[in-house]
Task: inverse folding
């Protein structure tokens, strides 16, 4: 099993310049689902902002709407109301062609489900580059090899998803998300089921990616310990998003919770 890499993948190849202006902003977002004639509101007036080069974490228990929030942030799910801006553009108003370009060049999404088709690791990661015209075939292969090496899973290149350990799956999923050098990296409960050490290792990787490439990172997690090293932490409960901690406050929270091992998640 590979150890957690100490550095994030370098930003190689053609890419736009990063600046602090590259920001994800979700503003006044509402989302409801209707099942069996019963309407359930999962997001109620949700607002958050993640500046470029920083990591934001949304903490909530299962079925609280974290995945819905990530899908809305990615533009794959439209909110009932509200706006989602990436680098100043409202994703909710883009036509299909413009959104496809954003998805191919500016967004990286890491889920826990893995590929839906039977591919080896190298092919799966390279698939993320297929829709962009910035890379030749040779550049794509070199880029994939470079990212897999940086994340410590180069030896898994010819393996299939089900042959990987959970830790290897996490690193491969991150690889396919960051291989495009995105402006926005979205991570949906990728660390669920990992021990605390591995959760913190993933957060170290995400923080390194944000700092070295300048992208904004938003991750959804199920517990506060998984949110350590984030620049901002929001709590999602009963559809409402609340900013709980920023910067040094997160470290203070962790120290407090270490002294109180029997704590329960306030979500």
Result:
């Amino acid at each position: 099993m590979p150890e957690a890499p100490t550095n994030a993948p370098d930003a190689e190849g053609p890419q736009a310049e990063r600046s602090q202006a590259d920001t994800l902003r979700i503003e006044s977002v509402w989302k409801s689902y209707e099942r069996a004639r019963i309407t359930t509101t999962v997001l109620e007036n949700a607002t958050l902002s993640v500046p470029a080069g920083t990591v934001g974490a949304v903490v909530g228990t299962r079925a609280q709407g974290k995945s819905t929030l990530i899908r809305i942030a990615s533009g794959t799910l439209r909110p009932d109301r509200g706006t989602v801006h990436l680098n100043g553009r409202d994703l909710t108003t883009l036509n299909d062609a413009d959104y496809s370009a954003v998805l191919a060049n500016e967004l990286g999404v890491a889920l826990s489900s893995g590929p839906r088709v039977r591919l080896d690791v190298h092919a799966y990661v390279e698939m993320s580059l297929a829709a962009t015209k910035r890379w030749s075939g040779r550049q794509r292969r070199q880029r994939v090899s470079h990212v897999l090496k940086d994340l410590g899973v180069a030896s898994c290149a010819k393996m299939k998803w089900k042959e990987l350990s959970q830790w290897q799956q996490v690193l491969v999923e991150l690889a396919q998300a960051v291989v495009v050098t995105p402006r926005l990296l979205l991570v949906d409960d990728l660390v669920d089921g990992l021990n605390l050490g591995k959760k913190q290792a993933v957060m170290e990787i995400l923080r390194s990616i944000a700092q070295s490439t300048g992208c904004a990172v938003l991750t959804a997690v199920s517990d506060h310990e998984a949110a350590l090293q984030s620049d901002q932490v929001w709590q999602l409960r009963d559809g409402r998003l609340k900013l709980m901690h920023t910067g040094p406050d997160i470290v203070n929270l962790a120290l407090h919770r270490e002294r109180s091992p029997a704590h329960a998640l306030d979500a």
